[in-house]
Amino acid sequence: MMKNWMKFLETLAGKLTAILAFAALVIALLALVGNRIPADYRLLVYILAIGAMIIFTIQVLARRKKTDSPQEKSVRRRISAGNNIENSNIVLGNGNQVNLIIQDYARLRTGVSKEDIQRQLDEYLDWVQESFGTIVLRGIERGGEQAVNLPLETVYVPLQADLQMSQDEREFEDTEGQMAAIRSARELRTDRKIQLNQVLSFGNRIIITGGPGSGKTTVLLHLAWTLAASLRGVAQMAYQKLGITGVLPLPIYIPLTRYADYLRKLPESATAEQKSLKTYVAEYLNERGTNLEGLDSDFLSFLLRDGNTVLLLLDGLDEVPNEDERVLIRSKIEDLVSGKKNLRVVVTSRTAAYRGQAVLGRDFQHIHVLPLDKAQIELLVWQAYNSIYPKSAAIARQQASDLLQSIEQLEAERRRRLGDIIKPLVDAPIMIRMLLIVHYNERKLPDQRADLYQKSVDVVLRPDNVPDPNVMEEIEKRVAGSLAMNREMLQHLAFHMHRQGEEQGREIDETGLRKILEAEPTYKPYVNELIAQTRQRGTLLEERGGLYRFIHLSFQEFLVGRYLVQNFSDADQLVSFLEHELIADSWWREPILLLVGYQDLIAPIQARRILLRLAGLDENAKKRARQPFDLQLAACELAATAYLECKSQAVDLKEQFKTHLLALHQSSKRNRWTPGILASAMDGLDRLGFQPDDLYEFVPIEGRDSIPPYRIGKYPVTNAQYERFLRPENFSEKEGKQFWLDFPKFSEPDKNDNIKEMGKWGDEAWDWLQRAKEDKDYLVENSVLYPRYWRDPRFGLARRNAPLVGISWYEANAYCKWLLERWDGLEEGQCKDNPPLEKIKEIRLPTEVDWIAAAGGVGKGKDKDRFAWDKPGEVTNDEQEVYRHANVRQVIGRTTPVWMYPQGESYPHKVMDMSGNVWEWQANFRDSDRDWLALRGGSWYNYLGNARVSIRNYNHPNLRIYFIGFRVLAFPR
Q1: Is the four-CA dihedral 532, 536, 542, 548 of positive or negative sign?
Q2: Which SS3 state, helix, strand or coil, does residue 135 take?
Q3: 589-602 and 449-461 are packed helices; what angle lies between their axes, rounded to 10 degrees?
Q4: Dist. CA 416–CA 424, nearest whole Å
Q5: I want to staple 918 with a disulfide (CB 3.0 to 4.6 A). Which of 14, 262, 882, 965 is the partner?
């Protein structure tokens, strides 16, 4: 109710005044209800009403006195109805804010033409809007033009950032004995994610850091453009877009690398005033032709002294070439802001260069730009294509959807090859820009990685394009002689950096860079230009605090592959070079794959020769000395993987590689090998489509005591098998609910290790499924609940014959009931060694008793610590021998194909993977408390001793983790 009255007062105040509005309201209320007040109380009511009016009048006058600074008095002057903000002490927009600057300056300087200042400030704001109002995509090939201008207002997407801890907080966090307070400080830090378009609300002094191409400069340009547009138009835009409050400042953008160059050129006799940042601001604005050149030289100094009227945007502290100069620039910035608490300054720097003595004082809030998330990537692409095709929404929609789908496929393929923890390729605006240009020019992203990198390299290296080809040629000459020369120099540098190894091959200092490039006489004349270009502009190569590195390791890897192709014309010589310890080195994996891909683009016949030679299948293979077994595995797997990425190779290679990898797998029984290398080779065989003939077979286990004979899955359930279950009808109430009800409930083992069936689970699993479908952290599509790691390249469907993980006990049971229902139509029912459906009574998870029997028994006496493969009296105690039989202890770091360890099959029943790879859900409770379900078998993640048959584990039925899977048991009728 009170809010409604206040809103009424505020509206009325816009027509009258706040005091008069309140008086009118009081009189109106008394007129309406006065007659209803008993006569004895009317005088008291009138006295209270008059008192309320007096109190309200005093409050209004006090507030006005408090807020009426000289600046705000002048700002309050109403310029036009269009610029008026209702009930605001400060009316924003060009006419008021610019007038404020002019009036204040005119009071200090006599003889100043207000009209001239007004005109030049207006022209300056127009210049800011024109200069910073577009994002230029250079390299777009459209209608003979070499660039497309995208409106900044349309395509700008607010980035996320993290408000970093101050030095005080870091020191506090390191204080010993303050654990509770430390946790509180850390929790506060995790909640400090902000939107960068709101950066001005976090204080008057801001330093923004981020990676190369992360959008730092665009943030400054957006601030400048929005403020200029607001000061020239309707100022509400600044409030809405920037979250700014109070007086709108005049934006001034300065690249700090230009300031450093200015200081370098000053004579030694230059005064402190000439060296000051304040002086350079005027110099730069005049140099850029910003229409302020006619103003009094003291005008900009006046603006910088008055903190309420200017926002200084200082871009690229990291682009200052060396640390000594960065320290100097830092001191100049601090000198400028010293004593000016209201002066607003925003500085940007790449993260790697913002360190040591270059760090700004504690009054600066440190804000770090975060990588793009999926929603931001989508928005950037959508808005870019909407701007490229403003008159064709359908084309824009089609192109944006295609690019986003291509990006998703690109990232998924990278995760499959390199693991889930690999840093995304597309996580910064510069990568979006690169892919957008390639996609626009090609109408799609190349589906061959080497082709994509080749085109992307040219996009990034291409200088700022202009319509005049002569001007373009002149620019290219300044960039290491030409685009081709620049690329050649960078791939030469990439190769020699990569040869330094993973620890030292990612970056290089200037001395090392010069040594590598100047050793080649052809490159020597251009080294200085390459270094200068990298410092000032940055392309594929960037400078961070005196060290040089490629903007993304992927580009270094591609350039290494390209270098190898161009420097080894003979396939045998090339592979011989790689066989010297490089093939089995993960650091060289991507360059090798990309060299084959690049060769496939430019010379497919030569690419085939390389593939066959690499796999050891060429015509001279038998004449050469036999390579170590690990090298044979690694080389053939690389050849198979590279083949799958090629687009010009014949299909016969696939069968050749599959046959050879199968032969190597059989040889693994009698050879020594490194677990990780064998696992990669078998993953390659999996990607080629291999699947064992007995994958769907159920192994018969004889009955004992009160347990009748049964059959158990020879392998744990794989991703490919479980994929068949992932259909909407199996998760629906109408058709699928039957699979989620009445699972058999089994007791914990008693003292004699007997387990009894004790009823049904009822609808608990169905209820859990409904909750899971509503959980935003679960992957649910079309009502289907997918396993937790279904799209993880280490554990999910990309590895079809790896054991399924990331499913709850409930999901495992539902699969069992579905398998029974659909048996005859599935591969299990069609397997000649399995019984037909009419002979199967039940399919469920095994109990611990069932599982132990299939694993060959726990053992007694000296056999009590046996693994599933151990024969009576032969307990494996040698650690290395365990690794030859099972996937344990994170030696490989992921699950492996269920058929990879034939020597690990259980004795005597030959059931696979019963020790290691994944823990397996059991049907029974673990103990008498009956809070947990049992697990057996150990896993890739756990200590090797956990893979012994006797070891028990347990967990809650809703746990979905990357080291728990299951296998299936079938009881005959």
Answers
A1: positive
A2: strand
A3: 90
A4: 12
A5: 965
H/E segment holding residue 427: none
Angstrom CA distances, 967 to 712, 725, 745, 912, 950, stand at: 8, 15, 17, 10, 18
3-state SS, 216-283, equals HHHHHHHHHHHHHHHHHCCCHHHHHHHCCCCCCCEEEEEEHHHHHHHHHHCCCCCCHHHHCHHHHHHH
Neighbours of 967 (CB within 10 A): 28
Amino acid at 738: Q
Chain centroid to Cα 355, Å, comes to 24
pTM of the model: 0.66
- Please report, as a single letter, which amino acid is at residue 50: I
Model confidence over 474-499: pLDDT tens digits? Answer: 445 555 557 788 899 999 999 999 99
What's 790's DSSP letter? T
Element (H, E) at 548: strand 547-550
What pLDDT is attached to residue 108?
65
The pLDDT-based confidence of 432 (bands split at 50, 70, 90) is confident
Specify the DSSP element, H or E, that contains 208.
Answer: strand 205-210
CA dihedral 509, 512, 516, 522 (to 10 degrees): 70
Those residues whose C-beta lies under 8 Å from the C-beta of residue 378, and which sit 6 or more positions away, are 404
Residue 641 burial by Cβ neighbours in a 10 Å radius (0-12, 13-18, 19+): buried
| Cβ-proximal residues to 148 (8 Å cutoff; 6+ apart), any chain | 136, 137, 140, 142, 388
Alpha-carbon span 803 to 715, nearest angstrom: 8
The sign of the torsion formed by the CA atoms of 910, 916, 921, 927 equals positive
Q: Strand 205-210 relative to strand 344-350: parallel, antiparallel, unpaired? A: parallel
- Alpha carbon distance 535, 541 (integer Å): 9
**Coil, helix or strand for 922?**
strand
Contact status, residue 598 vs residue 645, Cβ threshold 8 Å: no
> What does the alpha-carbon distance between residue 524 and residue 531 come to, in Å, rounded to a whole number?
12
Task: Name residues whose C-beta falls within 8 Å of residue 795's C-beta, 6 or more positions apart in sequence.
Answer: 789, 802, 805, 806, 894, 895, 962
Structure tokens given for 856:
């060959």
Q: How confident is the model at residue 189 (pLDDT cuts 50, 70, 90)?
A: very low
Rounded to whole angstroms, the Cα distance separating 62 from 65 reads: 5
**Secondary structure (DSSP) of 316-357:** -GGGSSSHHHHHHHHHHHHHHHTT-TT-EEEEEEEGGGS-GG
Distance between CA atoms of residues 158 and 376, nearest Å = 8
Strands, E assignment, 906-959: 919-925, 933-936, 952-955
β-strand pairing of 757-760 with 145-151: unpaired
Cα end-to-end distance, the chain, whole Å:
74
Six token digits for residue 109: 């300087």
DSSP letters spanning 65-77: HHH--HHHHHHTS
φ and ψ of 382, to 5 deg: -60, -45
Tens of pLDDT, residue by residue over 500-521, are: 998 889 889 999 999 999 999 9
- Token pair recorded at residue 813: 């049971």
State residue 360 phi and psi, 5-degree precision. Answer: -70, 160
Residue reference for tokens 């994996």: 589
> If you average pLDDT over residues 627-636, what whole number do you get?
95
Enclosing H/E stretch for 544: strand 541-544
State the greatest distance between any 2 C-alpha atoms of the chain, in Å, as a whole number: 123
Confirm if 932 and 757 have CB atoms less than 8 A apart.
no
Classify residue 796 by its DSSP letter: S
Question: If you search the block for the tokens 């029984």, which residue do you land on?
Answer: 669
Please name the helix (run of DSSP H) or strand (run of DSSP E) that holds residue 207, with its range, or none. Answer: strand 205-210
Query: DSSP code of 711?
Result: E
Q: What are 79's strand-pairing partners?
A: none
SS3 label, residue 4: helix
Q: Is 407 exposed, middle or buried (0-12, 13-18, 19+ CB in 10 A)?
A: buried
Cα(472)–Cα(464) distance, integer angstroms: 8
